[in-house]
Amino acid sequence: MSATRRQILTGTGALSAGIAFTGAFPELFAGTAVARGHRGYGPLVPDPAGLLDLPKGFRYTVLSREGQEMSSGEGRVPGRPDGMGALPGRRGRVHLVRNHENSHTSALGVPTVPGLTYDPMARGGCTALELDGRGNVLSERVAVAGTAVNCAGGPTPWGTWLTCEENESKAGTNGYTKDHGFVFEVDGADPHRTGAVPLTAMGRFQHEAVALDPRSGIVYETEDAFQPPFGLFYRFLPERPLGGSGSLRAGGELEAMRVPGVPDLSAIDEPGAVFDRIEWVPVPDSQARETPIRVQDFGPRGITHAQKLEGCYWGGRAAYFVSSFARSAQGSAGDHYGQVWKYEPDHRRLTLVIVFGPSTDIQLPGESPDNICLAPSGGLMVCEDGDGAQHVYGLTRHGELYTVARNRQNTGTPEAPRWGEFAGVAFSPDEETMYVNVYRPGTTFAITGPWC
Q: What is the pTM of this model?
């Protein structure tokens, strides 16, 4: 059973954290086009090609398909495209750096390339597409290889991509020759500048996504764990903050977030719940040499966990992060179909911005949100992850959903259809194009239209 406000205040000791309740959801979009009444783009129009349904006035271009030969000659386009960053290049060009969430058993892994391969026995990594000012693909190549289960990540202020391994296997497991569970920096314009160097000081755990504070250089990190013990929300304090490409290799300190009186974020189910005086606790062993970080000893007051922490991004003066779902049947303290949290470093304040069902009015037609990003309208774009048809939704300040895209590629049968989830939603630097991946069959789309 989810915790109510009264249970939180009287039963968990959360009052010591300075809990309050405010209208946090409208605040997320204040002053934007969404706040001025944006309500979506109308119904989807069936795609005669059977790939992607979009609203009237929008069109898509297929930039890349799994199995095709890359223009670099390094091999075929890998499968399972996931998180993705759209980074600005010279003369209006865009560098799309795309994760591939391949495990050691994946049939279509990232090709190994000298100088760009961490562990030749791992099948994950990133590929990079370079687009000209008109959106045409100029090149496609390997950006990093030999990593494991690259799920999401995040951009840096200096124009590189941080790709995250959602895997914490040690050398000798599954044939791996090196430990995994790290973040790697990727330069989409020149991958050999960054190579395949793990940023070990950022921790070894089941990484999902990161958001870098462009003012302080602090990096916030999510951990995706769907079984107890659940993951943590981290911050990395770099030795060389905002030092540019390669600076994160200098090391730093890793800390985990503690919300006093709240051992499990899923217990909080009322949008607008605010926790002041958030604490950051040093991680005992950031390399998880013997014990995963999430089960290490953080002292008698413990640490705060959450089920399936996924997307993470920086907006304004805050880090936003997603818990894609929680199930009490799987050990969580509450049930929900997704949460969006906001952490404000200047005030050490954590706010529950959005809760998707079952006890709120904000529902996804599908199961749960995964990757999210801010849209040009000021709203959110949400990639659905669940059973049945898969969509990209927009979300207004009033909690109203509107449909942006539907995947029409059936990888099952007519009797038992199966549609791959969307992932990696991102907008071009000029905000005129939305890029998004379909996980199966691996497809990368560019969508243009009257974004507002």
A: 0.92
Long-range contacts of 32-39 (CB under 8 A, 24+ apart): 32/377, 32/378, 32/379, 32/397, 33/376, 33/377, 33/378, 33/379, 33/452, 34/377, 34/378, 34/379, 34/396, 34/397, 35/378, 35/397, 38/377, 38/379, 38/396, 38/452, 39/396, 39/400, 39/402
Q: What Rg do the C-alpha atoms of the chain give, in angstroms?
A: 21
Per-residue pLDDT of the chain (452 residues; tens, 9 = 90+): 333 333 333 333 333 343 333 334 454 444 333 334 467 899 999 999 999 999 999 999 999 999 999 999 999 999 999 999 999 999 999 999 999 999 999 999 999 999 999 999 999 999 999 999 999 999 999 999 999 999 999 999 999 999 999 999 999 999 999 999 999 999 999 999 999 999 999 999 999 999 999 999 999 999 999 899 999 999 999 999 999 999 999 999 999 999 999 999 999 999 899 999 999 999 999 999 999 999 999 999 999 999 999 989 898 899 999 999 999 999 999 999 889 899 999 999 999 988 887 765 555 555 567 788 888 877 788 888 777 889 999 877 666 788 999 999 999 999 999 999 999 999 999 999 999 999 999 999 999 999 97
Q: In three state form, how does the secondary structure of 169-184 look?
A: CCCCCCCCCCCCCCEE
Beta-carbon contacts of residue 6 (< 8 Å; ≥ 6 apart): none
